[in-house]
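May I ask for a single protein's sequence together with how it folds?
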Amino acid sequence: MADPAQAPIGLKVKLPFQSPEEFISKYGANLTRGGIYLRSRTVKPPGTAVTLELQLQDGRRLIYASAVVTFVTGQKGTGISGMGLRFLTLDPETKRFLDTATATLPHANTSQPPLPSGAGEADHGTPTAQAATPTSAPPVPQLGTAPRAKAAPTLNANAPVVAVGSGAQVSAPPFEEPKEEPKRTGPIIGIDLGTTNSCASMVRNNKPAVLTSREGHNTVPSIIALNARGKIVIGHPAKGQMLTNPRLTVYGAKRLVGRAYDSPIVQQIKDRFAYEIVAGEGGESAVKLGSTVYSLQQISALVLREVREVAQNQLGQAVSRAVVTVPAYYNDNQRQAVREAGRLAGIHVERILNEPTAAALAYGFGRDLKQRVLVYDLGGGTFDASVLELAGNVYEVISTGGDTFLGGLDFDNAIVAFLLEEFAKKNGKPFQSDRVAMQRITDAAERAKCALSERAEVRVHVPFVTMIDNQPLDLDVTLNREQLVSLTEKLVDRTIQVCDEVLKAKGLGPQDVDEVILVGGQSRFPLVHKKIEAFFGKPASKGVHPDEAVAVGASLLANSLGQLEGVVLIDVLPMAIGIGLPGGRFKPVMERNCALPSTKRYTIGTSRDDQPELDLAIFQGDSEKAQENEYLGTLRLTGLPRGARGSVKIEVTFEVSNEALLKVKGRELSTGREVESTFSTRDTPETVKARLTQDDGSSGSPGGPGAPAASGPKQKIPSGTPSAEVAAAANSGGFLGWVRRLFGR
C-alpha cells in the first residue's frame, strides 16, 4: 500500500458525456460500486493514493472520491494503458449516484474496480514502461499527466464522507403544508393537471395563451423525485433522473390519487411502478421516497406548486386561484383529492373542470359554433370521451364515459412485454432483473413508440440490462410499425368502444357527430387517426393543440367566472351514485349522465325500536353489483329520536355540484330537525368485510357491538321504493346483516 504520509495525487477528468445516463450507457462497463477503470497514457504504481473528480461535459461533478490504484494494464507491451482505482471514501452525492447508477449494471455489484474486456492483463505490481494504445481499444476518457495534490481538488476533511457499501438511506424532507388558506385575490389561471405533463394557461387581452417556464417549456412533467442531495425536485429535473434513480422518482400518480391502497385496482398495478406504493395514514394510496411517506394529494400538490411557480414567473405577480381539470371519468373521491391537492399547493380551486369539456371550450373559442362534437381525450394515463352540443357560448355535455386505466402508459407496457418476449427468444431464458432495469426498458419503449409515428422501423437498444450465466447482456430488438399496430390495436379498439357506448347512451350514432376533437399526447398515434376515421366516417379535427387545449379551455372558463355574459357550461354526472342493497346489488340514486348540478332525496325508515343511528354505504359506478363500483364511504346518521321501528323517517339528500362533487345530508322528518351526519371515505369494501368478519359472533346482537337486537317477527315490506328496500334489509339482521349480504357473506 501507499505510504500514508504521502499526499494523494489529484486526478480531475472532464468526460465527453452530456448526462449521467449517457455516461452509464457508454461507460458502464468501466464502473462498479467499488471502483472505476480509467484509460491513461501515464499510469501510477499500484498502491498510489488518488483524489478523483469526474465531471460531465458541462462541468457538473459526477464522481468525487478518495481512491487507491489497485492494478494497471498495458505495461507489458499488450493491452490498453490504464489504471483500476478502488474507492476508499465517497462524498454523499457520489455515494448516492453510484448506488443508483450501478444498480443498472449487472457486473457492478463488487467492491473492486472492473477489468474491461480488451484492456489486457491486470498487473498488481510496479508498472513498467508505457505501452502504445491499440487502435481497437474501446472509447474511454484520456487522462493527462496527473498534477500533484496542491494543484488539484481534495476531499474536504470537514465534509461528511460515506464508506463504500454503507447503505445509507436518503431521507426526504417532510411535506410543508401552507400556513393559511389560499387567498381568493389576483388572477385566475387554468391548470391541466396531467398524468404525464401539466400545463398552465391564462387569458390576457381576450386571448388565451400557455404560460411557459424560464427555460421555454410549455409543459411541466408531472414527475417528482428525490435527488442525490436529499432534495425534492419537480418537473424536468425529476424526469432527468428516471433512468438513474427510478426507485425515488414518482410518475403516473394521477392514476392512483383518491384510491384506497387495499382496493383491487391499486393492488393490481402497484408493482408496475419502480417507486414504492404504500398505505397512507387513512388507508389511501401513498408513495414512499427514502424514509418519508407522501400522500398522493401531496405529490399532486408539488406538481401544482411547480406549475404555479411557472405562472408567477410569467405574470410577475402572486397566483393563488385556478380552474383545475380532471378526467371526466374521475369519481367523487378522486375529485375531492384534486381539490385538496390544490389547497396544499396554496391554490384556491375555483372550479374542477372535466378535461373533455375544457378541450371543447378551446375548440369553440371565438367561433360562434352550432355543432355536436365528440372529444376524444387519450392522455398518458386516462381516456375520456364526451359528447357536447355547442351553441355560441353555451357548452352542454350530453353524455360522457371513459377509462381511468387506459392511456399512453398501457401502450408502453404492451411494447415492453414484446421486448421482453424477444429477449427471451434470443437468449433462451426469460428476462430477470430489478425495477431499475425495467425502467430503462420502459423508457426505451416510450421513445420507440414516438419514433414510429414518423419512421417505419426503429432499433431498441438497452445495454447491460441484465446478467445471465455471469455474462452481461444487452436488449437489442428491431421494432417496426406493423408490429406496433399489432401490439396496441386492442387498446385503440377499447377507446372506440367507449366512444360507441357514449353515443348509444343518448341514442346517437357516429353519423350524428359533426366533429371529433383529439386531445392528449397519445392521440397523435397514427393508428388512432385511422380508427377514428373508419368509425366516424370522417377525419378528426386538427383545430386544437393536443397538449395545450385542456389548459387553454380551463383558462377560458377561469376568465369567464363572474362575468354576466361568460361561458355557460352544462355538465353531466360521469358515473351513477347510489347505495348498496341486499345480495350485493347497487341501487342508483343519481343516474349517469344526469345534468349537473342535481339533487335527489331518499326517505329511509328505522329498522328497530328506539334505533339511535343509521348507516348507509354509498358507491359510485355503472355496474349492477356494488362490489364492482367505487366505494365512496359510509353515511352515519346519529342522534335519532326514540320511536317504534319504521316510525322514525330520515330524508337523505344527495347533492352533486356542477363539478360532480357529492354532498350528503340527512333530516329527521317528524321533527324537521337536521340530523348530524358524517361521511367517511376511509373504508373500502374490503376493509368493511374484514371488520364484519371480526365482529361476527363478538357481540350479542345482530346489529353489532352495543346495538340493541331487532325484536319481533320479520315484516314483509313491499319493494319498489328505496326506503322499503333499505328497511327490509335492516329488518333481516340489522345493519351488519344487511352489509353481510351486500358483500356476499
